[in-house]
Automatic annotation (TrEMBL):
InterPro entries: Dxylulose-5-P_synthase (IPR005477), THDP-binding (IPR029061), Transketo_C/PFOR_II (IPR009014), Transketolase-like_Pyr-bd (IPR005475), Transketolase_BS (IPR020826), Transketolase_C (IPR033248), Transketolase_CS (IPR049557). It comes from Phycicoccus duodecadis. It comes from the Bacteria. GO terms for cellular component: cytosol. The keyword Magnesium applies. Keywords: Isoprene biosynthesis, Magnesium, Metal-binding, Thiamine biosynthesis, Thiamine pyrophosphate, Transferase. This is 1-deoxy-D-xylulose-5-phosphate synthase. Its EC number is 2.2.1.7. Homodimer. Belongs to the transketolase family. DXPS subfamily.
């Protein structure tokens, strides 16, 4: 039986002799590469936290103590050490989540994969423990250097640093990267602290080798201590965290398990808030990850474990369409600039950045800053394109509303991964963006139905200079081109019944246009008269949709957004405002958090497939 098989929880881990921990770490790494190469997932981040997670679960007593992982993508080792070894269905329907999951384990707390929240969670948990007289229960937050660039983290630090005796440990997992190398003033400061590695080792050496020397030991140690102070003031002035009033321990070698345990025990014993700065390597122990320039295997698909090479060939993506359009626009318009929130490559801005580095801004995991900085860039006479995943627009709603829309800023927001993403589960589906956008005065939103429409929409969006514009498209392979049979104003008619009177005006939004078309074909074959349209610009609702609705017995809208406040709601309102009372059926995503599964499985469960839409419409036409 392997060491890993003997561990069903932290108690078994604590019982392991320390001498066996390196072998356990090796087993865990081998397990991660073997398993995640089959399922896909966050291989690099988890390979980097093997020793750290072992030390955490040997020093602290989960679930009496609580360990919170920021973003949660690096919690696979935590899952292994808390009795979950079946990774065969990782991130698949019915299988283990790729993030912590309370349904899976009492050791899991934060399921939200939006970054920079862990310190706030941990502050609340720790403060709550004190109020409840449970000061003996410790709380630990593990936050990456990337997540530490998020504003929420600093709201929390501002509060935590003012606490005196809170049993709270903040572990900064510093691997110098988000996807790409972490940049900015904070990253520079962490680098300064890292360079004091010698200083810490010098101090430890002094404690081990000098202070016990007979006779001169004590005096010598005091001298060294003074020298240490001097060195520290020269090499590493009081760090920012200490300046803020936080006790700082580190930097600690994040792959030296005994050193980690020593630092964490020291932090646990300290009793007050304390920050432990841990240096790790993303992809540690797996050369294909370590040497991967792009993102050190931040997230991989199915790969060959020997070579790390992908075994799935991805087709041309929606993101590729956007990436190409941006480079072309960059050539044509010198005022177009781009902003990413630490996801240059995933959102498709890398080619633009390579071509126009001086017109590209990577603000770190800081969507709020990105959005308001964009308002500033627009004010200065440029046209910014903010590219984020749709789910992360949630973070920057107020900035979109109050900094961009209130000031009529010509800012374009491009939302990748809109609609159903799939394996990343509830906090990664981009299913609220059209509801959010729908309440922003003056905002224009386009949902391209295929690759050609992406270019058309982005070009039209950057031509809007007096209001925010949004272009949103899903994850993965781009849809095949869908030609319009005719246009009515800006609205594309995709299918026409051979009659003037129409039973149903079926509005397909974005990638759901294809779904609507196929559903219409089924209904038309049964004798129903269905007109299918793509509004192209879904917000504000085009007048032509209202005009076309006048000739229809009922209207139906298909959208991969939550039904509440989505395009269907907006169309309903537009019809009612125009005095039309046809029934409107809205086929969208339920107001529920949708578990991880494949994109197709989630859409199927939401009845957003052609068959389901046709069936539901058929019932209404009966
Ligand atoms: C608000 C938000 N924006 C963007 C992301 C996408 N994202 C997931 S992990 C990650 C990088 C995290 O870097 P770090 O915190 O350093 O963790 P590491 O992967 O290095 O362990 C990003 C940008 C996110 N999860 N949340
Ligand atoms: C946690 C994290 O990294 C997410 O942002 C997610 O994994 C992105 O996945 P995709 O880029 O594959 O949609
Ligand atoms: Mg990092």
């Amino acid at each position: 039986m392997s060491l890993l098989e003997r561990i069903d929880g932290p108690r078994d881990l604590k019982a392991l002799p320390a001498a066996q921990l390196p072998a356990l770490a090796d087993e865990i790494r081998a397990f991660l590469v073997d398993q995640v190469s089959r399922t896909g997932g966050h291989l690099g981040p988890n390979l980097g936290v093997v020793e750290l997670t072992i030390a955490l679960h040997r020093v602290f007593d989960s679930p009496t103590d609580t360990v919170v992982f920021d973003t949660g993508h690096q919690s696979y080792v935590h899952k292994l050490l808390t009795g979950r070894r079946d990774f065969s269905a990782l991130r698949k329907q019915g299988g283990m989540s790729g993030y912590p999951s309370r349904a899976e384990s009492p050791h899991d707390v934060v399921e939200n994969s939006h970054a920079s929240t862990s310190l706030s969670w941990a502050h609340g948990i720790a403060a709550g423990r004190v109020v409840r007289g449970e000061r003996n229960r410790h709380t630990v937050a593990v936050i990456g250097d990337g997540a530490l660039t998020g504003g929420m983290a600093w709201e929390a630090i501002n509060n935590i640093a003012a606490e005196d005796d809170l049993p709270l440990v903040l572990v900064v997992n510093d691997n110098e990267r988000s996807y790409a190398p972490t940049r900015g003033g904070l990253a520079d400061h962490l680098a300064t602290l890292r360079t004091t590695r010698g200083y810490e080792r010098f101090l430890d050496w002094g404690k081990r080798n000098v202070s016990r020397t007979p006779v001169v030991g004590g005096a010598m140690y005091e001298t060294l201590h003074g020298v240490k102070k001097g060195i520290k003031d020269i090499v590493a002035p009081q760090g920012m965290f200490e300046d803020l009033g936080l006790k700082y321990i580190g930097p600690v070698d994040g792959h030296d398990e005994p050193a980690l345990e020593a630092a964490l025990r020291k932090a646990r014993a300290f009793g007050g808030p304390v920050l432990v700065h841990v240096l790790t390597q993303k992809g540690r122990g797996y050369d294909p990850a370590i040497t991967d320039e792009a993102d050190q295997f931040h997230a991989v698909g199915v790969i060959n474990p020997e070579t790390g090479l992908p075994l799935e060939i991805a087709g041309r993506s929606w993101t590729d369409e956007f990436a190409e359009t941006m480079v072309a626009l960059g050539e044509e318009r010198r005022d177009v600039v781009a902003i990413t929130a630490a996801m240059m490559m995933p959102v498709g801005l890398q080619p633009f950045c390579d071509r126009f580095p001086e017109r590209t801004f990577d603000v770190g995991i800081a969507e709020q800053h990105a959005m308001t900085m964009a308002a500033g860039l627009a004010f200065s006479g440029l046209h910014p394109v903010v590219a984020v995943y749709a789910t992360f627009l949630n973070r920057a709603f107020d900035q979109l509303l109050m900094d961009c829309a209130l000031h009529r800023a010509g800012v374009t927001v491009v939302l990748d991964r809109s609609g159903v993403t799939g394996p990343d589960g509830a906090s990664h589906h981009g299913m609220w963006d059209m509801t959010i956008s729908g309440v922003v005065p003056g905002l224009h939103l386009a949902a391209p139905r295929d690759g050609q429409q992406v270019a058309r929409a982005v070009r039209a969006a950057v031509a809007i200079d007096d209001a925010p514009s949004v272009v949103r498209f899903p994850k993965g392979t781009v849809a095949e081109p869908i030609e319009a049979v005719r246009t009515v104003g800006g609205v594309d008619v995709l299918a026409e019944p051979d009659a003037d009177a129409v039973d149903v005006l079926l509005v397909g939004v974005g990638s759901m246009a294809a779904t609507a078309l196929t559903a219409a074909e089924k209904l038309t074959a049964e004798g129903h008269r269905v007109r299918v349209v793509d509004p192209v610009w879904a917000l504000p609702v085009p007048d032509e949709v209202v005009t076309l609705a006048r000739a229809a017995g009922r209207v139906a809208v298909v959208e991969d957004n939550v039904v509440v406040g989505g395009i269907g709601s907006q169309v309903t309102q537009a019809l009612r405002d125009a005095g039309l009372d046809q029934p409107v059926d809205v086929f969208g995503l339920p107001k529920r958090f949708l578990e991880h599964a494949s994109r197709g499985q989630v859409l199927d469960a939401a009845q957003l497939t052609p068959d389901a839409v046709a069936t539901r419409l058929r019932d209404r036409l009966a």
